[in-house]
Amino acid sequence: MALNKVMLIGNVGKDPEVRYLESGPQNPSGNAKVASFTLATSERFRDRNGEVRENTEWHNIVAWRSSADVVEKYVKKGTQLYIEGKLRTRSWVDQTGNKRYTTEVVADSLQLLGRRPDGSAEGGQQGGYQQQRPAYPQAQPQYQQSAAPAQSAPEAMDAPEDDLPF
């Protein structure tokens, strides 16, 4: 058994590059759309001295066909995305004759996160956009703050209507 699965939440590093491929053995119908862009994922941690450090990883993302359509219409530099896909490593020979390698994430699905540029929430139907759902709903970020502040525990315990017998 084997598994090649990647799940990322990050920000797009630069505007996507969208291309149309010519027909060929792997693309007999022609006009296959492909979008490529970089995605930054960051993690914060405290070092031995207690200072907060940040480590950013850059991922090369490739989206094909309908996913490339979504990328072309809605994704730009700074857009926050949730991406599910698989790793793919490919090689080529550069101009100097050296064999080069690159590892990419081929997106199976993607979901726009955050807010739209016009400030409206993304879950709506405005502009003809319908949000795609990830395969794993629990992968949604758990760090979002609630709209209403939570009542602190000491205030709840001092409430006069507390009629517990003990």
List the helices and strands and how they pair.
Elements: E1 6-12, E2 17-21, E3 32-46, E4 52-64, H1 65-74, E5 80-93, E6 99-113, H2 153-157
Parallel strand pairs: 4-6
Antiparallel strand pairs: 1-3, 1-5, 2-3, 3-4, 5-6
Give a description of the structure.
- This protein is mainly β and 166 residues long.
- The chain contains two helices and six strands.
- The chain has helices spanning 65-74, 153-157; strands spanning 6-12, 17-21, 32-46, 52-64, 80-93, 99-113.
- The chain has a five-stranded mixed barrel with strand order 1-3-4-6-5.
- Mean pLDDT is 77; it is low at 122-159.
Span between termini: 57 Å
Please count the beta strands (DSSP E, at least 2 residues each).
6
Query: Any idea what the radius of gyration is?
Result: 22 Å
Number of helices: 2
Helicity, in percent?
A: under 10%
Proportion in β-strands:
35-45%
Lateral strand order in the biggest sheet: 1-3-4-6-5
Reading the helices and strands in chain order gives: EEEEHEEH
Global morphology = globular
Content-based structural category: mainly beta
Low-confidence stretches: 122-159
Biggest beta-sheet profile: 5 strands, mixed, barrel
Q: What is the mean predicted local confidence, pLDDT?
A: 77
